[in-house]
């Protein structure tokens, strides 16, 4: 999974290098998530915009190549995620942080709940 830390590190790296890194991460995965494919798609679209190329001139080929590898549902999820990255990058970052906070808090809560029971016995 591409984590919040991965995204923070990506922001410090030039766009072309970001694309290469995300591609490398995804090449190692058998079953990427739509969110992860969407990140790559958004970066590719960002490259097109930066290079003043027509939007979809290269990213469209990327999406077309996915049809042989992934389900239609996953591709649609990736496209929706890319759109969110492009339109609301701050909101995506907040969702990731909230998700990571929930993940990190659950084990702690479980440990805290277990401690009082041990003291009662």
Structure, briefly:
The protein has 121 residues and is mainly α. The chain has six helices and no strands. It has helices spanning 4-11, 15-27, 34-50, 59-66, 72-87, 89-120.
Protein traits:
78% helix, globular, 121 residues, disordered C terminus, 0% strand, 6 helices, mainly alpha
Secondary structure topology:
Elements: H1 4-11, H2 15-27, H3 34-50, H4 59-66, H5 72-87, H6 89-120
Helix pairs in contact: 2-3, 3-5, 5-6
Write structural notes for this entry.
The structure is a single chain. The chain contains 6 helices and no strands. Helix 2 (15-27) runs antiparallel to helix 3 (34-50) and helix 5 crosses helix 6. The protein starts with a helix and ends with a helix. The chain is mostly helical. The protein has helices at 4-11, 15-27, 34-50, 59-66, 72-87, 89-120. The chain has one domain. The radius of gyration is 18 Å and the shape is globular. 78% of the residues lie in helices and 0% in strands.
Number of spatially distinct domains: 1
Number of strands: 0
Structural class: mainly alpha
Count, helices: 6
Helix and strand sequence: HHHHHH
State the end-to-end CA separation: 41 Å
């Amino acid at each position: 999974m591409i984590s919040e830390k991965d995204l923070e590190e990506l922001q410090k790296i030039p766009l072309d290098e970001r694309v290469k890194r995300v591609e490398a991460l995804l090449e190692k995965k058998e079953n990427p998530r739509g969110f992860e494919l969407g990140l790559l798609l958004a970066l590719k679209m960002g490259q097109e915009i930066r290079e003043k190329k027509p939007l979809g001139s290269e990213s469209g080929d990327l999406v077309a190549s996915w049809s042989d590898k992934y389900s239609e549902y996953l591709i649609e999820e990736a496209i929706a995620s890319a759109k969110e990255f492009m339109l609301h990058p701050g909101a995506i970052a907040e969702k990731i942080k909230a998700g990571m906070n929930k993940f990190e808090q659950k084990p702690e809560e479980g440990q805290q709940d277990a401690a009082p029971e041990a003291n009662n016995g």
